[in-house]
Design brief:
By secondary structure, the chain is of the alpha/beta class. It has helices at residues 22-29, 47-62, 74-82, 106-111, 115-128, 131-135, 157-161, 173-176, 198-208, and strands spanning 7-11, 34-38, 68-72, 95-98, 144-149, 183-187. The protein has a six-stranded parallel sheet with strand order 2-1-3-4-5-6, sandwiched between helices.
């Protein structure tokens, strides 16, 4: 039986837009959820501005009642970076970090000085490449599942690092899993398409539907 929380906030990754999340929205709306998407413009917004806007967004949603949060890719970093700053009653009930790095990304470190990478990812991309800054982002204190991809063929990761370790084309599995004790769910999906992957959506649904 599903719990009573019927709102989901989807916090997108760098470059993601709400019009791209139709499959995700439709999947959960069919299951009775109201889905609200948060995106941002890395080309014109600072990281502090993005975090401020997200904090206000989550506070407004939380003010209307309980909700769950799904942080996709860098969206999960944003959620972790400000969750403790929210009033306890405004925090998500449950969370999913979807293909979201928990430490500095190998790929980001490799590309951080490339001009095209800097243009496309802005300050967020530099943050994701910084070992010190990423290590200081706290883990969530609310129930959280880590859903990560294992389909490596679409993305730049294999071009630079090959197939010596499992990855989704952008984020390595060991960058998305905090520990062997965590609720970690691998799915056969590449990074760019995991928000619309059926296995990922089903895993998210099952986690959010838990009553304990």
């Amino acid at each position: 039986m599903n719990n009573s929380t019927r709102q989901i906030v989807f916090i997108d990754g760098v470059g993601g837009k709400r019009y791209m999340r139709g499959t995700f929205v439709r999947y959960f709306e069919r299951r009775g959820y109201n889905v609200l998407c948060f995106d941002y413009k890395v080309s014109s917004q600072s990281l502090d501005e993005i975090k401020k806007n997200l904090s206000e967004f989550l506070s407004a949603v939380g003010g209307q009642g309980e909700y769950h949060a799904v942080g996709y890719s860098f969206g999960g970093v944003l959620l972790r970076s400000l969750n403790e700053q929210l009033e306890p009653h405004l925090r998500p009930r449950r969370a999913v970090l979807l293909a979201s790095p928990l430490r500095a990304m190998r790929l980001a470190r490799r590309l951080r000085h490339w001009k095209i990478y800097q243009i496309l990812t802005g300050e967020c991309g530099q943050f994701a490449a910084d070992e010190d800054r990423m290590s200081k982002v706290p883990m969530l204190s609310i129930p959280c599942a880590h859903v990560y991809g294992t389909w490596p063929w679409l993305g730049a990761f294999c071009f630079f690092f090959g197939f010596d370790l499992p990855h989704d084309g952008m984020v390595a599995a060991d960058e998305a899993i905090p520990s062997s004790q965590a609720q970690a769910i691998p799915v056969p999906a590449s990074h760019a398409f995991i928000p619309s992957n059926f296995h990922a959506l089903s895993a998210i649904d099952q986690w959010l539907s838990r009553t304990v």
